[in-house]
Design goal:
The structure is a homodimer. Chain A is mostly helical. Chain A is built from five helices and no strands.
């Protein structure tokens, strides 16, 4: 197995998946604990997209743990193709959700004075949640690129 | 040269680039002709991102026309790598801009009654602009995947 950072079935790959899972979970926790997140559909979409990312990254982290324990090679072409497709779908949804929420927050904070006029809205928590979502998306992009190059080198 | 749809230097590749360019230009035209687009930073970001996509797709369309006229093969590894990187950067910006604008429009139309309360806002034009932006992004994804597989088959 090539020693690329983030290769599935290696410690770095497992670390990336755990970080993705934690970032997405932190994004959900920040958004769910804020008051008034149900005012915007984008915030609910962010929770759904991050929920999907938690499930996906947790599943792949379990696969990595299994591969590390039984010293199994995960470089099968079919498995890597499935991982790349899943990574891309999850990454597109995560970027769309984070961007749409960011658009709404910029409107609340910069373009209007809604955050000042309505102090019940947890604008800081919205921003923290979106920052974690973008970080989770960035980590997912690293994983998907590693798997893509592995797949290209196999074919 | 493999007869894949959207291959650079082929008629299908040129057609895809022209369609991308036209969709992005239509998105800019719809947004710029609307009243009140400057109320949201996301809408200005959409215009910038679509402007970048118009320039990028127009440049590559010119390259395709040149390759078709002089019957030149564009399957150089360095050129294809540059095209893939440029496509990805443009696609990520286009998706982020379209999603953030969509988040704001959903807030205007569904989550609040701003579109009904302020009839001066051209909410229909915002929606048309965003639809064109998503279409331009989708066409860019098709191009970038074709170039990526070409690159993988070359290496």
């Amino acid at each position: 197995m090539k020693p690329w950072f983030g290769t599935p079935g290696m410690t770095s790959g497992l670390l990336l998946r755990i970080l993705q899972c934690l970032s997405a979970a932190a994004s959900i926790a920040a958004m769910a604990s804020s008051t008034g997140f149900a005012t915007a559909t984008s915030f609910c979409f962010l929770i759904s997209a991050m929920g999907l990312q938690v499930l996906w990254s947790f599943g792949l982290a379990c696969l990595d743990i299994h591969a590390l324990r039984v010293k199994k090679d995960l470089q099968s072409q079919i498995l890597l193709s499935l991982v790349v497709i899943g990574d891309w779908v999850t990454a597109i949804l995560a970027l769309a959700a984070a961007s749409s929420s960011a658009g709404v927050v910029v409107l609340f904070v910069r373009d209007s004075d809604i955050c000042k006029l309505e102090p019940t809205l947890s604008c800081h928590l919205f921003q923290i949640s979106i920052a974690f979502a973008f970080f989770a998306w960035f980590l997912l992009v690293i994983s998907s690129h590693t798997v893509l190059w592995l797949l290209a080198s196999l074919s």
